[in-house]
Amino acid sequence: MDAKPAAGAAIIALPILALALGHVFSNAVRTLPAVAADVLARDLGITAETLAAITGAFPAAFALVMLPVGVALDRWGVRRTALALLSICAIGAMLAALARGPWGMLLAQVVLGIGCSGMLMCPLTYAARATDAAGFALWSGIIQTVGNSGMLLTASPLALLVEWQGWRAGFLAAAALAALGLAAVAATVRQPPPRRAVSHSLKQDMREVLAIAASPALRPLMVFAFASLAVVLGLRGLWGGPWLMEVKGLSRVEAGNMLLAGTAALVVGPAIAGAVHRLVGRPVLLMAASHFAVAGLILVLVGGGPGFWLSRLLGLPQLPAGFDAAVLVAFGLVIAFQVLCFSLVRAAVPADQAGRAMSAQNIAFFAGAAVLQGVSGAAASLGGVAAALLSFAAALVLCTAGFLWLRRG
After folding, report:
1. Which of 8, 58, 141, 200 has the fewest C-beta atoms lying within 10 Å of its C-beta?
2. Is residue 199 part of a domain?
3. Helical pair 57-64 and 354-408, crossing angle rounded to 10 deg
4. How many domains does the chain divide into?
5. Is residue 122 part of a domain?
6. Model-level pTM?
């Protein structure tokens, strides 16, 4: 192999992978409650529904600060933005580990949401500026794959850690991961901020982010994104554990193993989605079909519960745990087509607006997660964990229908 191309690839790869450690942290910390919800609620003196509301502060804070994060990426560059946010991440994880009640955990979730707000946008923005369109499509899938590995940490490994040392140890481990990311970014990322022909005030820059979000090119993608991440955080990040432990009767470690299988699919899914896209094209069709299919998978998962429609149809008290594992794996593979959003966003704007455009997209991802997590908590208070899961299926159908309708216009 020629040494020059290899050196050039390393110059691009090392900073992107270092920045992706922040995305690993973000995925780990926001899915941590899935296998620790019961002991978290017990130790904080709250109900599962209140825990859903508290953890909903994470995506709410995340969405609220995406405007300044998008501006910071384009104005001050990836390096300084990432270093500041990773420092906040470490502080948030420590606050969570030290929380003694609901207000302490609420504060920690807000700080974590602020810190994690740029953990995906930083590597994506770096890649958008360092590569061409084809290279960006490849790297966006790699970034998602690396980042999703953070959810592997909060499956079986976290379940074992919670059994051994308690949930606080999970947040302490997350703080150590943030510190590792901070060191890696400081050592490898050197990309300067882009040159801008016209100087704008911060207020003007933030207005531009909102204008990009409301533009005809991005409006359908914003609607699509509103339910897309919400279902991942809802199933993998919060309600998956209670479903497996409380409804299906599995132990914490057994539930962690089930979630691990689904998470492994989430890790490899973006790469598969990228390969399918390169073979067949049609990103809009792939994205819409994936969302409708995931809504169906949630319906089938709930149907296999004790006394639910699929169990009754098959004449069983409930479907075995292996069925849930298979559905979770299918969920992880199919929902991964959401990664195609970023290529469509990148193609819709000039390179110097990449940070703001992808931040606008992320506002929709996390605003939807915040709203729908609150809705799921209300649904759970009325109909239990099954109702919480079904609320996400309904949101997927509505948002995907809206996405297709706006695309027609």
Report:
1. 8
2. no
3. 110
4. 1
5. yes
6. 0.76
How many whole angstroms separate alpha carbon 108 and alpha carbon 35? 18
Tokens coding 19: 């920045």
Q: DSSP letter string over 254-314?
A: HHHHHHHHHHHHHHHHHHHHHHHHHHH--HHHHHHHHHHHHHHHHHHHHHTSTTSHHHHHH
Q: Mean pLDDT across the stretch 304-322?
A: 93
**Can you tell me the distance from the alpha carbon of 362 to that of 357, in angstroms, rounded to the nearest whole number?**
9
Which residues, 6 or more positions from 2, have their beta carbon under 8 angstroms from its beta carbon? none
DSSP letter string, 44-111: HT--HHHHHHHHTHHHHHHHHTHHHHHHHHHHT-HHHHHHHHHHHHHHHHHHHHH--SHHHHHHHHHH
Question: 192: which DSSP letter?
Answer: P
Structural domain boundaries, residue 331: 10-188+206-408
Instruction: List Cα–Cα distances, 185 to 18, 181, 190, 287, in angstroms.
Output: 5, 6, 9, 32
Q: Is residue 102 part of a domain?
A: yes
8 Å CB contact between 327 and 240: no
> What Å distances lie between residue 336 and 33, 145, 209, 340, 348, CA to CA?
21, 9, 26, 8, 21
Q: Is the pLDDT of residue 137 over 80?
A: no
Report helix angle 3-31 to 133-148, nearest 10: 40
Q: Are 381 and 391 in contact (CB under 8 A)?
A: no
CATH number, domain of 298, equals 1.20.1250.20
Reported as a single tens digit per residue, the pLDDT across 164-207 is 888 898 899 999 999 999 999 999 988 776 665 455 566 676 77
Distance of alpha carbon 21 from alpha carbon 264, whole angstroms: 17
Question: Helix %, strand %, coil % for the chain, to 5?
Answer: 85, 0, 15
Give the angle 99-30-79 at the CA atoms, nearest 5°.
Answer: 100
3 inside domain: no
Provide the residue type at 404 as one letter: L
